[in-house]
């Protein structure tokens, strides 16, 4: 090897080591994150040994509270725009699913769809909620329809927001998700996480990337660093069987609103029509300018159709 080539290799190694050092991002304890990300009305609830971060807002006499489930690598914060618009009239319950937010990794290391649905039922049992309306985005949407199948007598209405469930073909996948799926390389994300990777991933799921603020990136970045969450993400993707139970969707017999972003490149809008065709009597609300998380990107516009669906004035 020539001296020139050796020098280039040496410089590359130096720059790689420097990049690794600058991107070093160790786990953060729950206690260090609570002050910023779990102020009141946040609370924590022990559910069969799993400590769950949740918010329970609005009138307690609501006979069918609205339960909100977030997607992969998100948290209950993604729903705060909807909560603000609904809590004066409806009881609204949101919580971080195992593997994400401040709830952190599943104590059973089980991230399968029906296991998440059983977890939702366990949380609502602990809160003594018998009947409810359930809404979910992405992964949370899949968990929502699975919950409706698991406990049909308890679900009053169903709201699917860019929901998972089919063996979908993405047009684009956030770089953070791509890294979590690559063997060997995914082990590095436990110790290395450039903030730019998180920023690009969030921009990827927005219809208009200019809506992504520094504060929003801070939230996704810091909650991803919650101890155990990065390893849980890898496990979630390892256990995921995309579309394995899609035939069950036709069994749903509950009033359903399907909300979708027309610029969703992760689960494209054609899957809204799949849900619509499979769920008898369902209604679709398409938002052409929004992406994969329309409830977060434009809460005011999207919650308006929800209010109408729920019969709110």
Summarize the structure.
By secondary structure, this protein is an alpha/beta fold. The chain has helices at 3-23, 30-37, 80-86, 113-126, 139-150, 175-181, 185-188, 195-205, 214-224, 229-239, 270-278, 294-297, 299-309; strands at residues 42-47, 50-57, 66-69, 92-95, 132-137, 155-161, 256-261, 283-287.
End-to-end separation: 75 Å
CATH-derived topology: Rossmann fold
The proportion of strand residues reads 5-15%
Q: Please tell me what the overall shape is.
A: globular
Note down, in words, how this protein is organized:
The protein is an alpha/beta fold and 313 residues long. It has helices at 3-23, 30-37, 80-86, 113-126, 139-150, 175-181, 185-188, 195-205, 214-224, 229-239, 270-278, 294-297, 299-309, and strands spanning 42-47, 50-57, 66-69, 92-95, 132-137, 155-161, 256-261, 283-287. It has one domain (30-309): 3-Layer(aba) Sandwich (Rossmann fold). Helix content is 42%, strand content 15%. Strands 1-2-4-3-5-6-7-8 form an eight-stranded mixed beta sheet, sandwiched between helices. The N and C termini lie far apart (75 Å).
């Amino acid at each position: 090897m020539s001296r020139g080539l050796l020098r280039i290799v040496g410089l590359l190694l130096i720059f790689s080591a420097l990049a690794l050092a600058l991107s070093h991002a160790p786990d953060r304890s729950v206690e260090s994150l609570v002050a910023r990300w779990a102020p009141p009305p946040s609370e924590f609830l022990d559910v069969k040994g799993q400590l769950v971060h949740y918010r329970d807002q609005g009138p307690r006499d609501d006979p069918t509270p609205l339960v909100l489930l977030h997607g992969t690598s998100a948290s209950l914060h993604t729903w705060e725009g909807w909560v603000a618009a609904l809590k004066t009239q409806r009881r609204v319950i949101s919580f971080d699913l195992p593997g994400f937010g401040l709830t952190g990794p599943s104590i059973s290391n089980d991230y399968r769809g029906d296991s998440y649905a059983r977890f939702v039922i366990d949380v609502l049992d602990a809160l003594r909620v018998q009947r409810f309306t359930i809404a979910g985005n992405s992964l949370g949407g899949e968990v929502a329809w699975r919950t409706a199948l698991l406990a049909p007598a308890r679900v009053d209405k169903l709201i699917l927001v860019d929901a998972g469930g089919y063996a979908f073909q993405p047009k684009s996948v956030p770089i953070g998700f791509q890294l979590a799926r690559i063997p060997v390389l995914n082990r590095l994300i436990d110790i290395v996480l450039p903030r730019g990777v998180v920023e690009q991933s969030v921009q990827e799921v927005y219809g208009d990337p200019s809506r992504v603020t520094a504060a929003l990136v801070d939230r996704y970045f810091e909650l991803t660093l919650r101890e155990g969450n990065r390893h849980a993400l890898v496990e979630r993707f390892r256990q995921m069987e995309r579309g394995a139970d899609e035939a069950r969707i036709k069994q749903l017999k509950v009033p359903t609103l399907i909300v979708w972003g027309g610029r969703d490149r992760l689960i494209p809008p054609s899957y809204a029509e799949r849900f619509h065709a499979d769920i008898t009597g369902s209604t679709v609300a398409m938002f052409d300018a929004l992406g994969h998380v329309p409830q977060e990107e434009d809460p005011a516009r999207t919650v308006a159709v929800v209010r109408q669906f729920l019969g709110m004035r």
